[in-house]
């Protein structure tokens, strides 16, 4: 194990309400990266609570999002993140040089039941696995 003081990569997930897609992505990244990546999520117009269908869909995979609270997007959060990922919701973020920006076109789970949220959840998980592979050096 290296004792280098390299800063771990950080990712910010952005969605208008920060209640579904961005929360699921953050929960997956936190869980699947085992702490190797700093994770944030936020929205330009945060909802008052996380989408219950998203919470239920994630609980089916053993990931508890019930305590999460939607957060407002700040310029500081963007500035402090290495990768900024929008969730296909048309949100715009301040642009800073040297950051990696991605837009993941994902269906909006708002107002849908857990049956409609599962395929969105599974799509997010696949994208998160690719993101982790791109941000962390391969384990030897």
Describe the SSE topology:
Layout: E1 10-14, H1 21-32, E2 38-42, H2 52-59, H3 75-79, E3 83-86, E4 100-103, H4 114-135
Parallel strand pairs: 1-2, 1-3, 3-4
Helix pairs in contact: 1-4, 2-4
Describe this structure in words.
With 140 residues, the chain is α/β, with parallel strands linked by helices. The protein is 34% helix and 13% strand. It has helices at 21-32, 52-59, 75-79, 114-135; strands at residues 10-14, 38-42, 83-86, 100-103. It has a four-stranded parallel beta sheet, with helices on one face. α1 links the parallel β1 (10-14) and β2. α1 (21-32) crosses α4 and α2 packs across α4 (114-135). The chain is globular, with a radius of gyration of 15 Å. The model has no long low-confidence stretch (mean pLDDT 90).
Uncertain segments are: none
N→C terminal distance? 11 Å
Identify the overall geometry: globular
**Tally of strands:** 4
Quaternary state of this entry equals single chain
Query: Helicity level, as a percent range?
Result: 25-40%
Spatial strand order of the main sheet: 2-1-3-4
Radius of gyration: 15 Å
Q: Please summarize the sheet with the most strands.
A: 4 strands, parallel
The overall average pLDDT, rounded, is: 90
* Secondary-structure element order, N to C: EHEHHEEH
Helix tally? Answer: 4
Q: What portion of the residues fall into strands of 2 or more residues?
A: 5-15%
Counting helices, strands and paired strands, the structural category is alpha/beta
